[in-house]
Amino acid sequence: MRNHRKLQSTVFLTILLILGLQLAVTKTSSQILSDWNEQYENLQNQIMQKKALTKSSAISARIESQVYDKQALILNEDNTPTDVALRRTRSLINHLKTLPGVKDLSSLEAELDAISTQRSLLAKSSASAEADQEQYNALAKITRAAALTNPLLDFDDLLFMEWTNLFSSPQSRDPGDD
């Protein structure tokens, strides 16, 4: 049970970080873009690791069985970080639409659809990594805006903390460790 709570806590923190919820007032646009670039690189590394793991379906199946929300995973159809962000943002918006009291998300959905259409056109022309990064950043803005429409976020200040261990894995403190 303790390990399960640790996993849930880590998955939750990872999802929040991936969503790009950079709410600190002191951050500037260049700092946010720098963070999104780092997230992009992290997702690229996760995609490469997933491709290496797909050779061992037993390991992949074990990992999938331990995850609360499969959207937190890198899926076989995810070829670039933008693929991951597009899928996760669409999932977030679909979930938010089920919550009572959520604001109208149609403009964000339209932006998401426009990026999805651009993505289809760029895929046919073998787009560059820079174009993919630009789309990722545009998706990060949409994700951030969508996440902030969550009616459960009914407060003014929000603080996220992260630290890494020796292996650069994000860590969070589990209240059950006391």
Description:
This protein is mostly helical. Helix content is 59%, strand content 2%. The protein is built from six helices and two strands, in the order ααααααββ. The protein has helices at 2-18, 29-53, 57-65, 81-96, 106-124, 129-147, and strands spanning 163-164, 170-171. Strands 1-2 form a two-stranded antiparallel ribbon. A hairpin with a 5-residue loop joins β1 and β2. α2 (29-53) packs across α6 and α5 runs antiparallel to α6 (129-147).
Which secondary structure elements does this structure contain, and how are they paired or packed?
Blueprint: H1 2-18, H2 29-53, H3 57-65, H4 81-96, H5 106-124, H6 129-147, E1 163-164, E2 170-171
Helix pairs in contact: 2-6, 4-5, 4-6, 5-6
* Biggest sheet character: 2 strands, antiparallel
Strand order of the largest sheet: 1-2
Catalogue the unreliable spans: 13-28
- Beta fraction: under 5%
Morphology: globular
Number of helices: 6
Find the count of extended strands (DSSP E, 2+ residues): 2
Note the run of SSEs as H and E: HHHHHHEE
Question: What can be said about this structure in brief?
Answer:
The chain has six helices and two strands.
Q: What are the key terms here?
A:
single chain; about 180 residues; mainly alpha; two-stranded antiparallel ribbon; about 60% helix; about 0% strand
